[in-house]
Amino acid sequence: MSPSCLIVSLVLLLISFGSAGAARQDCSGCHPVQPGGLHAEFSCTECHGADKDRAHDTGVEQEQLCGRCHRQETGVLHGAMATRSAERDFIARSFARHDADFATANCSSCHLSSCSDCHGSGHALKRPDSEACVRCHRGGFVGWDYLGRAPREDSVRYQRGPQAEGEYYLQMRPDIHAERGMECAACHDMASLAAGRRSAKGCVDCHRPDPQVVEHGIAAHMEKMECAACHAAWSAQEYGTFYLKMIDSPAREYFRVRQDADSNYIKSAYLKLWEAPPLGLNAAGKVSPLRPWFLYYSEIVEG
User: Fold this and answer.
1) What's the rounded Cα separation, in Å, for the pair 172 and 159?
2) 8 Å CB contact between 143 and 187
3) H-helix segments, 127-248
4) Which residues pair with 289 in a beta bridge?
5) Which of 88, 194, 212, 239 could form a disulfide with 271 if both were Cys (CB 3.0 to 4.6 A apart)?
6) What is the mean pLDDT of residues 89-98?
7) In whole angstroms, what is the distance from residue 62 CA to residue 232 CA?
């Protein structure tokens, strides 16, 4: 064999080995997925690493995976939306004294647990829009009112009309910012949520009170009242929330309210309203709209 033929043979052999190595690194051979959304231009190894064993470690938590690049943002998973420490403390002092599993049965579905809760799962992650927010911030919680949705009464006779996330609602007037096309993230951005703040902006960060408006000329209004005390058109309100736990009791059939077939509990309320909210002092000591909600009553009904 001539030297030139030997060189060609070696080159072909190296190309062959190189192709085999590339094939081993090509994840699509076994995983026919293509990143989309925010990570459309990323290679597999940018998130999963080049170490094959590490990339196939299914025990890696999403917070650890995303946190390799998004260290600050994972603070959301340790904030109020995820821990719900105040709510858990309340339950521990009340319902849990009689039912240790109360929170699991009634309160766990809307607690933030991973990045995918807001950004979607799989390989097509996206920035959450307002509809992603109201998957949890629905019903009487702050969120639905932004889109003009008021929760219906629990009685089956009122379970009709438009529906979202499995719940019926009354169409009310949306927030003016929603009418103008603003998403929740315009004021509640990731940096503020990761830092544990409720919002990144307040009203006066974008709106300067018009001094020609008579109410704006009253010092007590400007110093002691939140803007929403006057500008909130309506608020969802619920009075007399009750939970009934049925234990081998036929009494469950007497309640003509919507019920979760998988739960031992029946939840309803004495009264729901959708009107101008009552006013009171908030944590900052300012007059603010109040949202009466979860004024609890509890009963365990045995057969």
Assistant:
1) 16
2) no
3) 130-133, 176-179, 190-194, 219-224, 228-231
4) 279
5) 239
6) 89
7) 38
pTM confidence score? 0.80
Terminal-residue alpha carbon distance, the chain: 95
* Phi, psi at 168, each rounded to 5°: -85, 150
The two structure tokens encoding residue 209: 């009170």
For 140-183, the pLDDT digits (tens) are 888 999 999 999 999 999 999 999 988 999 999 999 999 999 99
- Residue 7, token pair as written in the block: 């060189």
Between β-strands 296-302 and 235-247, what pairing exists: parallel, antiparallel or unpaired?
parallel
In angstroms, the CA 109 to CA 293 distance is 18
The 8-class DSSP code of residue 136 comes to T
- pLDDT, the chain, mean: 84
